[in-house]
Design goal:
Radius of gyration: 26 Å
Structural class: alpha/beta
Distance between the termini: 68 Å
CATH superfamily of the largest domain: P-loop containing nucleotide triphosphate hydrolases
CATH topology of the largest domain: Rossmann fold
Largest sheet: 5 strands, parallel
Helix content: 55-70%
Strand content: 5-15%
Length: about 350
Amino acid sequence: MDYDMFFQELKAGEFRRLYLFEGEEEYTKESALKALREKVVAQDLAALNENQLADPKPEEIIAACETLPAFAPRRLVIVKDYSPLARASKAEAGGEEVAEKPGKGRARDSSLEDYLDRLPEYICLVFYVRGQAGGARKLMKKIKDQGGWVSFDKLDRGKLVKWIARELKEYGKQIDRATAEQLLFACGDEMLSLKNELGKLAAHAGEREAVTVMDVEAAVTKSAEYRIFDLADRVAGGKAGEALRLLQEMMAAGERSLMLMSLLQRQYRQLLFAKIMAEEGQGPAAIAQRLGLPPFVARRMAEMVRGQTTAMLKEGYMMCVNQEFLIKSGQMSEEGSLEGLIMNLLVLRREEEFDSAEAKP
């Protein structure tokens, strides 16, 4: 089931004896566990009727479930990061998930699988996995057959915008769709981080009911992707001082130059595509759809490439590609490489401006 169905069941006072919580949306997953805990265990008796186990042995899980609740009708057992349910490393299998291996460990796990068919009526057992579950197929199938598999997938952009509006309403604030899109672009779509940023936004808005783009720009912590977008904007505009100052801020914040270079390369690739599409007569809406960007980002990209040529953007993109290749192949030191790339991109921009001025009659 998805987590919407889980919350609906919980709201109706229904819960199951066995759950698997898995998926990439950790904030909602943790919220679901908190809500389940409040339904199953009386808070004043939680210390007596709740077990939290970290990657236990099967017999430890069974022992916890066999312990009778004290002065209450239910007992909650939470098993976190149970290794047989952890997604196997793809690197160990050349990009493919590692299949579960037979042997002693699997034989011991089978005792747990059998036990799940006879869980006591008083037990609520929750397997809580960071990220997506994988590995023990028989165990996962057993949980799925009992209806307790809950997937916590990331919300799509539309649902995230609605969630942001609901969360800000708790602070007595309102936000329009465009500002919420700006917030997502600035901070990313990880809900736990967003939750923290929403509190800062509400505080910055003060007495105002409406949260604005200016609040987003002033109050929230920007993601590396957003700051690279700003950096590319400064470079494309030939604003050398602002570009270098922004780069220094990112490096001082501990960002790795190779990672930033990779993001800058992707940004120049998107700018190149946006320019080609603009020359074909396609507007920001088409650019947004083709590149999978929010509309306001596509509009800014269209403005960024307006005064630049396709040839310059292509050369800038190839500079990024070549610089990253030289570093990864050991032909160039990573230290100082990003600063050098930014300077070369700025020089390229100045040369184009000079050539344009020379070409004018």
